[in-house]
Amino acid sequence: MKRGKMATRKQFQTSLKVSPTVKRRLESASKRGVSEEDLREQAVSFIYGNAPVDSKLITKASARTAVENIRLRSNKRA
Which of 13, 18, 63, 69 would give a disulfide with 48, using CB separation of 3.0 to 4.6 Å? Predict the structure, then answer.
């Protein structure tokens, strides 16, 4: 097997230009922290979005209740 340069991936061959507004907003968002509320809503969205489509038991409200009751385990042993 001949070893040489890897082929250039076409997905990286682009002349795409990011608008200054989008670039500014991305930079601003990257500096802003994520709130606990944002993290909770992301968890709710993840749970609800990964539930079976035909599920009658998993609703946004039940996902929110589950997230409110999540307790993270500590690495410390008592």
Answer: 63
